[in-house]
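Recap quiz, item 2
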Amino acid sequence: GAVVSQHPSWVICKSGTSVKIECRSLDFQATTMFWYRQFPKQSLMLMATSNEGSKATYEQGVEKDKFLINHASLTLSTLTVTSAHPEDSSFYICSGRIASGNQPQHFGDGTRLSIL
Amino acid sequence: SQKIEQNSEALNIQEGKTATLTCNYTNYSPAYLQWYRQDPGRGPVFLLLIRENEKEKRKERLKVTFDTTLKQSLFHITASQPADSATYLCALDSLGNQGGKLIFGQGTELSVKP
């Protein structure tokens, strides 16, 4: 149980393109979803926290106008990287959590984004 | 600021031995701590959660300890197998449990040789 599907798994696109990544909780309702970025050999860095029906809360240093997050339902959150540039190339991972409190997060398999 | 440190170097052990991974933290007192496994190119998979009032927790061949005095958690894999080879991440709830955010360590890469 607690499966999170992330799509696409990888994408290559030209600089200036906007890219949308979907994160779906398949068998549970995710009250909260998180978006992370991970560079090679480094830890997960939280970008933003989103609760269904609310605006996302972004971490310090993350541009909310560049990384648009929509959490329209309890099973779907999207991250749109607008006007992507090579420095945005990274591994983006989402996670969902069933309820508040001391609950684990369930992760998608990530999206490898490469901007040429 | 909150800081989490895991074994900085990769850990190489022989099959059948016990692997012990360390997670140290400073500058705050988390209410709970979690361990995840991450394979290359994949998202992390939840393994165990231990609360501040629990000293030890077990799940099959896995054991986690949580010493709030030392500000340290140890993660043990007994009777290790090559399939246990992966990167293991510890994660702590952020200061004041702000919406359940987790702060992750940089991970320890474990390699189990047959």
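DSSP finds no helices and eleven strands in chain B.
Chain B has a mean pLDDT of 91.
End of item.
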